[in-house]
Write a structure and sequence with these properties.
There is one protein chain. This protein folds into two domains: about 80 residues, Glutaredoxin; about 110 residues, Glutathione S-transferase Yfyf (Class Pi), Chain A, domain 2 (Up-down Bundle). It is about 50% helix and about 5% strand. It contains eight helices and four strands. α1 packs across α6. The chain starts with a strand and ends in a 5-residue tail after the last helix.
């Protein structure tokens, strides 16, 4: 299999962490890709030009990150990391959506900070970073945030938080969140996270 990726993408990192947790490093070739380069041939694999994209042994392309993780977990992980909807009461998938949403809103703030056609809108940046703060506070209040075994919620949350800390270092995002800080610190020590940390 081939994973088309950019190294510091938090969406890509979710997949890279799961690949390592499943022991698939030798089965998945990681291919650094410039998704904006039309000469790379990547647009033939994913016409949207978005990473991550997984090309299976059969030549099928799978995208986005949750679809890729769901495929890998179902095929190689016996649904340990991302349970099928029929086996879930909705809470784990809601928590996964919250963790994934942290990436989405922090990405909007990052892109706004990088605007080339004028000064960034502080209102847009602040609105999205406030959503990050509320999302992290919700995880801090969650009764099982620090007790569940590693699943896609934990993987996504660590990838989200460490990317937020990397791209928005002006705040202490874990201030007054001791349970969340302990949970993230424990998970981030796993080799799968250490090997894929943004830099």
């Amino acid at each position: 299999m081939k994973l088309y990726m950019t190294t510091n993408s938090p969406y890509t990192r979710k997949v890279r962490v799961l690949v390592r947790e499943l022991g698939l490093e030798r089965s998945v070739e990681e291919i650094p890709t410039d998704p904006r380069d039309p000469s790379s041939g990547f647009w033939d694999v994913n016409p949207l030009g978005k990473v991550p994209t997984l090309e299976t042994d059969q030549g099928n392309a799978i995208f986005d990150s949750d679809a890729i993780c769901g495929y890998l977990d179902q095929k190689f992980g016996d649904n340990r990391y991302m349970p099928p909807p029929v086996a879930d009461d909705g809470q784990r998938r809601t928590r996964l959506a919250l963790a994934h949403g942290l990436i989405d809103v922090s990405m909007v703030a990052r892109l706004e900070k990088q605007r080339q056609d004028g000064p960034p809108s502080e209102a847009i940046v602040n609105k999205n970073l406030a959503a990050v703060e509320r999302g992290l506070a919700a995880f801090e209040r969650s009764p099982d945030s620090d007790s569940t075994p590693l699943d896609m919620v934990g993987i996504t949350l660590v990838c989200a938080l460490e990317w937020i800390q990397f791209r928005h270092p002006e705040r202490d995002w874990l201030a007054a969140k001791p349970r969340l800080a302990q949970w993230v610190a424990r998970l981030s020590q796993r080799p799968s996270f250490a090997e894929t940390k943004p830099a």
